[in-house]
Amino acid sequence: MPPKAPKAPITCNWMRSNATDDTSADFVKTGYLPKKEIMSYRAPDPSEERPQPKDGEVVIFADHMSRGFAPPGSKFFRDVLNFFDLRPQDIGPNSVSNICNFQVFYEVYLGEEPSLLLFKELFYLNRQNECANGPSLELGGISIQCRRDCLFPYAEPLSHPKDWNQTWFYCQDTSPADESPLPGFRAQRLEPSHSLPDKLTQAERQPLIPTINKIKALLGNGLNGIDLVRVWISWRVIPLSRRPGLMCDYTGRKDDPLRHSRNDLLEDVVDDMTKSLLNESLTGCGRTGLSPFRKTNPAPTADDKFWKVKYDHEAAKKARKAKKAARRAAPRKKGSRPTASELLQLSESSESETSAHPETSSPAQPADDPDVVITRTEFVEPGRPTALAKCSAKEELLERRRAKLDITNYANLSIGEIISGYVNQVHNSRDLEIDMAACKKFEADISELKNRRKTQETETRKANAKFESSIAAQEKLKKKFEAERKTWDEEKAILISRAEQAEKALTERTAELSGLKRHVSQMVAAIFGPRSANLNQNVLTKLKAVYTLVEQLYTGSHRALAVVALSNEVPTHLADVLRRIAVLPQRFQELRRASARAGAIAALSRAKAFLPELDPADIALGYPSLKEDGTSFDQKDFAACVKIVRPVATLTGNDTDLTKYQPGYDAENQRIPTPRYEAISLVPPTRKHTFAPEIDLAGLIDEEAQFEALSGID
By mean pLDDT, which of 54-58, 341-345, 530-534 is the weakest? Predict the structure, then answer.
């Protein structure tokens, strides 16, 4: 067997661009490019064979923009290029479509920002060389492809899109400073040693299991790759662009900020645009597998049975193989893609050449020739040739009527025979004229029948076209109604679920409020006793009464603390107030002793002033045992002395300064330190009417907490 001839090298090099200023203007009209005041862009000079960008410019392709890209690209698109160290020139149209489909899938059906980790799990990078072990292609040196048999919505892309290397132009990179930039132009090819990412390890794949389970459920519910393309085309949203939100937030309104155009597309236009990006049939491009999730059709909740649908991956792979085999077996015109009419089998030739009864089919009609007369019709089997006459019907008729006379024998005829022959010829000529008139009438009838038949065939074709159009419209309406009915059922189920949840929450809150009202009434009764019946049943009135009592108690406590502190400085924090109230009884005892000390000092000081020989130490020992007359001094005598000095003691006490604390002094006349007070617990013992004793006030009363309503009292 002779060796195979080496394959011809594949090239995709820089060429002169056919992008012009009119191209940019068209992109501005459709919303793919902003005005030049917002972003700078320009078409290359017609003489440029290779890009020569200026500072701050990047090189992009108009063909990439037709596949869902708009500069400077989405954050995920730029992250992919920077992570794999690629430029826009390194990836072809189908690679851009794959990135676009992944971003649409993540934002629409998963409702999240795209994950680079899952992208590495589902897609891989493949080198594109000019030949085996040869250099990388100058443009499109890397192909981003879906892994074989991976769990991702499938649609067959176009095979080797052409001429995209002639659509380049320059654009300013307007990526945000805190995000990855859009990579700029590189003059060299990709190196053969350019690193390609490895497959994820089992540990790296572990966090993706919940998301992969969601993908299985989405595929089980009918999601396919055509849905990913139709959704952004019909919504007028550019996936690989900077947008104010995720695509799942799409509202469907014409003024939606996610849209790049307010003009809606007809369904036929959406089908054609989808078909132009995929190697799928026009009929398939018009079907929706799973309705996209958006504001008016939100994704099912996590506990919905939608996410429990099983997906038969093996059956899907078999169906995909059968579909490819059928597509390969179908007849195609060499060098051209199948048209929509071929895919739908609506070719006029197939309709006109096919009949239910071939043996009774109409014979082929000749051109409008008055000299041709159809004599009969007959079905001829293949392989049996049919001989056609070389003369017309008119010539055949004349031949039959022509006189069969031999001129060479005229000399042998008599005059009578010649006259008789002449008369006979005249009669024959008259019969010939009658026959020819009948033939012309017959030809006129045939021509009229031909015209009628053509008219009927035209009307029949029109009727068939209308019938097929009405059937197609009816099928579209049916599909639309089924999709809407499915959407209505889903919305109804969601609303019923929400209503049940709201009713359950309302029941719980009603029970909670009823218990709260009962507890408030019990607490008010425990505070005010039977007089609480004077209050109405309004809970707010009862709480106001409790608050008024608390406010009065707090104000009274403040005033008592001010008196005890012998100053106008009183604590403003609740914790300080509680600490001082806890030692207030001991503080009162100490103030009594201080007042007694102050009065005793005043009385003894005056006594010493009048009687210098008076020894205060003797007075401290008590009263004397004997009177001046030598009789004993008892308790009754002391009580009489007290009664005598009470008025004077009252005057002395009133004159004593009690605004200052009078400390005590020991025998050495040294000041005795102020005693430490032990705090007394203010929490009452638990009784049957004590409410919520287990509540810890530490979370409410700290060192900074104040009685906010009374924080500014004097």
Answer: 341-345
